[in-house]
Amino acid sequence: MSLSFDPNAAASADSGVFGLPYTEAESLIVFLPVPWEVTTSYGGGTASGPDAILRASHQVDLFDLDVLKPYESGFFMRAPRAEILEWNTEGKRLAQPIIERGGDLSDAPELAQNLRRVNELSAELNERVYRDCKDLIQAGKIIGLVGGDHSTPFGAIRAHAEHCKDLGVLHFDAHSDTRIAYEGFEDSHASIMYNVLERIPGVKKLVQVGIRDVCEQEVDYCRRQGRRVRVFWDREIAASRLRGESFSGMASQIVEELPQEVYVSFDIDGLDPRFCPHTGTPVAGGLDFSEAIFILRTLVESGRRIVGFDLNEVAPGPEGADLAEWDANCGARLLYKLAAFTLASRKERELQFL
């Protein structure tokens, strides 16, 4: 690290994520950008999320009121892989006519080849992310994956599940993401947690928080999983809040469902959409920013260990639009808190008293 680095000064134009001067070798946390939105079925723009967050991160002050100087452990964001950018461009072109038909190819059999190719590209992405994460874990790094849509972290979760015993996934989202091959896409953003449960046996528990937009098939599927899945519905959290019950109690209930080692998967639309108005599929309701942070802090205070994390579905607004940069601003601050709490959970940094 540069000896002239001043954590209280403005970020320089040529600095890295959060204005930091660290190289990957010097950093404990490595952010892995995955600019991908091939199967996005409503609003677009999440492929631009990693770059938008990187730019917005230069506005985040480094002193954290929950975790003492997390940046001193070293944060570094890799450049996106060129092949992922190419796959995303090809996949979006092939997927769009399928999405426009809602996945119904009964009168368009010529699109079946498009569907096969999109599924192939998605599988290639999963394998690429898996290999990158496996290498980083073996190098002793902590991974923060930055999407892209919410299909992107499958390979990261797989790599962590192989490295950990009895992994739990703490999933913040407006959606359950347990649809089966949504619109025919086997690795749809709407199917990530179905795929995790079906294909990654090392994930022993899935705890979902803030879910409020769901189809009947997803409800039935999650119920059939028994104790392996616990859903904290947004209506359940809101009702507790409206009854005047302690949010601290709700946060404790959420954390108590998790095993000792936890991977955090955070779709930003789990928050109230005032924090992410341009995300791909915004839904009214959701967590306040401070409530999400409180749950993460409660997780750390419980003594559980965050092994890795992802942040997905951050989409910047159109250039010139009102609040165009707001999503990335909130996303960058959430990413910093995820990194800080991960370090505190692993005793790398000190958690401050409230």
Keywords:
Arginase, Chain A, alpha/beta, single chain, 10 helices, 354 residues, 8-stranded parallel beta sheet, 38% helix
Radius of gyration: 19 Å
| The CATH homology group name | Ureohydrolase domain
- Total of domains: 1
The assigned CATH architecture is 3-Layer(aba) Sandwich
Structural class: alpha/beta
Flag low-confidence runs.
none
What is the string of helix and strand elements? Answer: EHEHHEHEHEHEHHEHEH
Main sheet characteristics: 8 strands, parallel
What's the tally of helices?
A: 10
Binned strand content: 5-15%
Q: What does the average pLDDT come to?
A: 95
Strand order in the largest sheet: 2-1-3-8-7-4-5-6
Task: Please identify the top-level CATH class.
Answer: Alpha Beta
Give the strand tally.
Answer: 8
Give the termini distance in whole angstroms: 31 Å
Globally, the shape reads: globular
Assembly type of the chains comes to single chain
Provide the CATH topology.
Answer: Arginase, Chain A
Give helix % range: 25-40%
